[in-house]
């Protein structure tokens, strides 16, 4: 009980600031470049939402957390529920989406063992983040945050599952196996076709390992986690 009270009374802003300092500068700089780039690339969509959009009416009417269960997408709105109270917020909702997308791009570069240079991380990250298909997710604003979030879940799941191979104890190994399974279930439960993204992330890593002479150490994943 004391442990719980200690966690609840913690200085979350102080902890977040300390964790930010511990992240390697390469990852932080790459994230900022990608985040700024995505915001510039999709600025027209962010601000045009204010004058009308496919989901304009949902700004007034909240999305129900369980409203997509009938479509087999039971986990679609949980992330949106925690971040925005299941509301669609002009500008802010897009900022959340771009934030998650930028983090996902950096983590994918780490998982794919992209050469550890600012140019490589930024160029590949922007290539992944700024693509025409992503506009479809922005257009269907009611599901944009959920769809972007499950991409992050998938990448984190693969990174954790890789750490399971090197876990020193059974407890850690169990955690590194169980958590990815839960994340993958949530991803598929939010949008079943996301299995295509799961395949691209995994096969991309496989192709890189086989055909490209990139960094083969696991330090990038260990440092970020």
Q: Helices and strands: which structural class?
A: mainly alpha
- Rounded to the nearest angstrom, the radius of gyration is 18 Å
Main sheet record: none
Please tell me the overall pLDDT. 80
Query: What is the chain-wise order of helices and strands?
Result: HHHHHHHHHHHH
**Could you tell me the strand content as a percent range?**
under 5%
How many β-strands, per DSSP?
Answer: 0
The percentage helix is 55-70%
| Total count of helical runs of at least 4 residues | 12
Shape: globular
Give unreliable regions as ranges: 1-8
Q: How widely separated are the two ends?
A: 26 Å
Fold and architecture overview:
It is a single chain. The protein is mainly alpha-helical. The chain is built from 12 helices and no strands. It has helices at residues 2-8, 12-22, 25-41, 43-48, 78-84, 92-111, 118-129, 134-139, 141-164, 170-190, 195-211, 219-224. It is globular. The two termini are 26 Å apart.
Give a short summary of the structure:
With 225 residues, the protein is mainly α. Helix content is 68%, strand content 0%.
